[in-house]
């Protein structure tokens, strides 16, 4: 189902870029006190989980975006709202995103569903009687929807939500090569290259250093780094196999997706049609909102209103 979302942007933040940049850079950094837990993985690596204070309600796992963490403004804000609504919230950091390089010569990627599967299994084992949900933002949303589509009715979640998802990785990458979106690309590539350099200081990596230096687009970086680190034949193989858009028909649990047509990280053409959605998906689209912005007013964000309300309705809290 596709419906028009009820988001109305703050009048003093018109346009995609202000909606995207202002909450990312100027939002007050108010964060819950978090408890960190390190999960040792079967392959010898680790994942770090950041837990909000204890709450008795359903457990909601948050998946951050590219080069994000629990300290990212969108993650911290959503964790606070979920906690205030009575949920037990936690953030799963993708490998290498918690402030310490991971141990193995690999990183994370948009279709990284194996670690999500492991963490959900751990949570289900610890909280067998509680409803369990997950919410993914941007790259984390793609990974979540990819996993839900792969698991189908066997997905051990009660409900899910996703925000500002790059449904088609190739289309999103090409959009980032045009206009002002190149500024976001440059910023994120700088962070990715810095993280790669820190990691290379600890171990040998199977990447071409010269190709990394020449990489000024996501496509070039993913071809030089993401694909070889994670067993893909190249960037096109990676984008084809890890775009969640073809997997949406397989989702069999209640799933809310929030998306803006003016998201500067992708073009409107990446948005799936109604025929590409399973009957368990509710896609709420707005004309405005930017990328994970959705500022309604001072300190008020549409997704921080809609996502807790969705989990409240779906989990019966």
Structure description:
By secondary structure, the protein is α/β, with parallel strands linked by helices. Helices cover 37% and strands 17% of the residues. It has ten helices and eleven strands. The chain has helices spanning 16-25, 73-84, 113-126, 139-151, 169-175, 181-200, 209-214, 218-229, 235-242, 302-315, and strands at 2-4, 35-40, 46-51, 59-63, 88-92, 132-137, 159-163, 255-260, 281-286, 295-297, 300-301. The protein has a nine-stranded mixed sheet with strand order 1-9-8-7-6-4-5-3-2, sandwiched between helices. β4 (59-63), α2 and β5 (88-92) form a beta-alpha-beta unit. α8 packs across α9. The longest helix has 20 residues, at 181-200. It is globular and about 50 Å long. 48% of the residues are buried. The mean pLDDT is 96.
Tags for this model:
two-stranded antiparallel sheet; nine-stranded mixed β-sheet; 317 residues; globular; alpha/beta; 11 strands
User: Using DSSP, what is the number of strands?
Assistant: 11
* Distance linking N and C termini: 24 Å
Helix content: 25-40%
SS-based class: alpha/beta
Radius of gyration, in Å, reads 18 Å
Mean pLDDT: 96
Gross geometry: globular
Low-confidence stretches: none
Largest sheet: 9 strands, mixed
Element-level helix/strand string: EHEEEHEHEHEHHHHHEEEEH
Total of helices: 10
Order the strands across the largest sheet as they lie in space: 1-9-8-7-6-4-5-3-2
Strand fraction band? 15-25%
Briefly, what is this?
The protein has 317 residues and is α/β, with parallel strands linked by helices.
């Amino acid at each position: 189902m596709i419906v028009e979302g009820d988001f109305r942007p703050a009048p003093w933040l018109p346009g995609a870029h202000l909606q995207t940049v202002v909450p990312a850079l100027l939002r007050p950094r108010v964060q819950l006190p978090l408890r960190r837990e390190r999960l040792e993985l079967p392959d010898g690596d680790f994942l770090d989980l950041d837990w909000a204070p204890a709450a008795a309600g359903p457990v909601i796992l948050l998946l951050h975006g590219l080069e994000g963490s629990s300290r990212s403004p969108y993650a911290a804000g959503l964790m606070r709202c979920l906690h205030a609504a009575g949920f037990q919230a936690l953030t799963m950091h993708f490998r290498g995103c918690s402030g310490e390089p991971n141990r193995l010569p690999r990183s994370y990627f948009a279709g990284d569903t194996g670690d999500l599967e492991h963490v959900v299994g751990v949570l289900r084992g610890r909280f067998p009687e509680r409803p369990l949900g997950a919410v993914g933002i941007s790259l984390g949303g793609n990974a979540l929807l990819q996993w839900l589509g792969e698991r189908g009715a066997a997905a051990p979640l009660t409900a899910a939500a996703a925000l500002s998802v790059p449904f088609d990785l190739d289309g999103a990458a090409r959009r980032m090569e045009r206009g002002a979106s190149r500024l976001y690309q440059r910023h994120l590539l700088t962070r990715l290259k810095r993280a790669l350099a820190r990691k290379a200081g600890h171990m040998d990596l199977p990447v071409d250093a010269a190709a990394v230096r020449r990489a000024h687009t996501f496509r070039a970086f993913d071809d030089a780094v993401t694909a070889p680190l994670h067993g893909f034949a190249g960037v096109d193989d990676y984008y084809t196999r890890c775009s969640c858009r073809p997997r949406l028909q397989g989702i069999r649990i209640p799933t809310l997706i929030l998306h803006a047509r003016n998201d500067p990280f992708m073009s409107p053409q990446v948005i799936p049609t109604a025929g590409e959605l399973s009957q368990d998906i509710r896609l709420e689209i707005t004309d405005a909102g930017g990328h994970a912005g959705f500022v309604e007013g001072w300190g008020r964000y549409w997704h921080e209103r809609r996502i807790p309300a969705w989990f409240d309705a779906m989990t019966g809290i």
